[in-house]
Design goal:
592 residues; mainly alpha; 44% helix; three-stranded parallel sheet; binds flavin-adenine dinucleotide; globular; binds iron/sulfur cluster; two-stranded parallel sheet
Length: 592
């Protein structure tokens, strides 16, 4: 009987050599596709056996972007072949059940002479699935060697929460010597060049054009599989944007070093409809699969002859933010256990609301409302529903934001060009850069009081680089302030002036950023609604002061805009400048 992986199975058979039993076995989770670190790096290939699981069960859990499924499986299968060619014995299972039900059967088949090892999975969800296998000794966890920093670095950088990336980054720079002078000072005299890195991009230098990749037969088979069996998943599958082999990964990274990193710093916060990439490297998806090792990126970036603000800016993202969010996720058990911040002088930021677990959601963050069909993962799977159902994640909600995620995030037109442009690009590419995630998608959702959990679930399925350890801190903490001041100092919200300054989106919009655009009234309405929670935050002193000077009519107009925009978008309709609540008559000295 033919399967959807015949070509791969034949290729794997052809690539396999050596004895059919091995003294050392390792389970390599789907996001640990490397032989450069961990036990696999230290085992003679002729003595090593590895188990890989292509999980159709996971694929059916959520409405993942099709690009994500294709990227993941193309890399997993390619990694399996690379290992077989090195002489490693590969047991590749295609599974329709959770790992806890799949792996015992595989273990019985390969009969490892000693318990199979696994590097501690980065995802909490995976650790929860594997927990019974750790308990009964089927699997033994060993440290995950893909990280650059340790829990000790994180602990030593703070006395406790609230945690701040800068403090962590400062400590790690000093502890590792990265970007430090021989006499232990920061190269360039400063920890961070962030304040130099906020330029809008006006067309020059030309944006970097990402490389395109030609699918080999292994990737082509995965594309067929995803297009035929996962056609009910959202997102466009772009055949040319599937780096799967080590050569592909190398080509992407070489391009990033050559074409992006020299300009990475100054234009880091810029957005443009002319280029979804600008000078961002697009390496996150492969880094999160360990096809590119973060340590290598940092070392090679450090060695480049490029302007220091760009070099430091990039290193801060990988060595600082990426490692930091992972530590916060771990320290809070994925935000299920939120420590109360230490009381701080002169701030009244209250303790975050205790984390709750959101109810099972067949609407899946608005997927059903948008697509007209419920997301029913169980019907796509063959395992019994109670074998293991991951919980639906922590749902902290510091600002008590309860608006359902509007269909605009799934692709319905909103009439706001910034939002529609970025959403379209996400469903086309499974990716967008940091500032579009933060200052368009999260900003607008936060201004509309969208449920932080729903937004997180959306990001998780829509992006090819999303895994719980990275998407949850970025959305729940940075994007929506759902955990209060636990790891950020303020909500990242802004009005139209910011979007207009940092992008060219407003030029193509039906709204005018200075007059009709709803984003600025939404911003004022947000500050007004949440003034008690946000009062006393030193970083919001100026806007809160400005809020106090607004007239009653202006405040009431902002509230009306909020209600109108929220209701229209939740209903899945586009906004029309002609039907917006009329602004109050302007008085000299007052801005709308
Ligand atoms: C709301 C929101 C959601 C996000 N969700 C994810 C996610 O699911 N997965 C993910 O990898 N990143 C996420 N990020 C962080 C960041 O936006 C992406 O890592 C980055 O845009 C990936 O594109 P790039 O590779 O071109 O990154 P570049 O801009 O080229 O940056 C280089 C690398 O730095 C790392 N990095 C930068 N910022 C962060 C950060 N805040 N957290 C972790 N790593 C970082 C990434 O590995 C990235 O590849 C999110 C950010 C926000 C604001
Ligand atoms: S005018 Fe307003 S809605 Fe339109 S793109 Fe600019 S910020 Fe977005």
């Amino acid at each position: 009987m033919s399967t959807d992986h015949d070509g791969f199975v034949h290729a794997l058979r052809r690539a396999t050599s050596g004895p059919d039993s091995r003294p050392r076995w390792l389970y390599v989770h789907e996001d640990q596709l490397t032989d450069q670190v961990g036990p696999l790096s230290r085992t003679d290939p002729s003595e090593a056996g590895i188990v890989l699981v292509e999980s159709r069960w996971m694929a059916a859990l959520r409405p993942w972007h099709r690009q994500r499924l294709a990227l993941l499986w193309a890399n997993q299968r390619t990694f399996a072949l690379e290992q077989a060619r090195r002489g490693v014995l590969v047991e590749y299972a295609v599974a329709h059940a959770p790992l806890r039900a799949t792996l015992p059967e595989v273990v019985r088949r390969v009969r490892p002479p000693s318990p199979m090892q696994v590097m501690r999975p980065a995802e909490r969800q995976t650790r929860a699935d594997l927990a019974p296998l750790f308990d009964d000794g089927t699997l033994v966890q060993v440290p995950h060697e893909g990280w650059i920093t340790s829990h000790e670095h994180f602990r030593a950088s703070h006395q406790g929460p609230p945690w701040k990336m800068d403090a962590f980054y400062r400590h790690v720079r000093q502890a590792t010597g990265i970007l430090m002078t021989p006499d232990a000072r920061f190269i360039g005299g400063r920890l961070s060049f962030d304040t130099d890195n906020r330029k809008p991009w006006r067309g020059d230098p030309p944006p970097a054009t990402p490389p395109s990749f030609t699918p080999d037969p292994i990737t082509a088979e995965v594309i067929d599989l995803v297009e035929s069996r996962y056609a009910h998943h959202p997102g466009r599958l772009d055949h040319r944007a599937l780096p799967a082999t080590l050569d592909d990964a190398q080509r992407l990274w070489d391009w990033a070093k050559r074409s992006c990193l020299p300009w990475f710093g100054p234009y880091e916060d810029a957005m443009s409809r002319q280029s979804t990439t600008l000078f961002h490297t697009r390496v996150s998806s492969l880094v999160n699969l360990l096809r590119l090792l973060p340590r290598r990126l940092v070392e090679e970036a450090e060695a480049l002859d490029i302007p220091l603000p760009s070099k430091e800016g990039f290193i801060r993202q990988v060595l600082g933010w990426r490692e930091f969010v992972r530590h916060v996720h771990d320290a809070t058990d994925g935000f299920r256990s939120l420590p109360a911040p230490r009381p701080r002088a002169k701030t009244s930021t209250p303790a975050p609301t205790p984390a709750a677990t959101s109810p099972a959601d067949t609407d899946f963050a608005g997927f059903a409302a948008w697509s007209g069909r419920p997301w029913t993962p169980i019907t796509h799977n063959t395992f019994s529903a109670d074998a293991f159902t991951p919980d639906t994640g922590a749902a902290p909600n510091h600002l008590n934001a309860q608006t359902p995620l509007p269909p605009a995030w799934w692709g319905a037109e909103s009439g706001m060009h910034c939002l529609d442009h970025v959403v379209r690009s996400v469903w086309q590419e499974g990716w967008s850069h940091h500032i579009t995630r933060l200052m368009v998608l999260s900003n607008l959702a936060t201004l509309l009081d969208v449920s932080p959990r729903q937004l997180t679930d959306w990001f998780w399925v829509a992006y090819t680089d999303a895994w719980d350890w990275v998407v949850e801190p970025n959305v729940l903490a940075m994007g929506t302030y759902a955990v209060g001041g636990l790891m950020t100092t303020k909500p990242y919200v802004a009005g139209a002036a910011y979007i207009d300054r940092m992008s060219d989106f407003c030029k193509s919009c039906r709204f005018h950023p200075g007059t009709t655009c709803p984003v600025t009234p939404l911003y004022w309405a947000f500050l007004d609604r949440h003034r008690q929670s946000l009062a006393g935050n030193p970083r919001l002193f100026m806007p809160m002061n400005a809020l106090k000077k607004r007239t009653d009519a202006q405040r009431s107009h902002a509230r009306d805009v909020f209600v109108h925009v929220r209701d229209v978008l939740v209903a899945g309709r586009p906004l029309d400048p002609r039907s917006m609540p009329p602004p109050p008559p302007t008085r000299p000295g007052h801005r709308a």
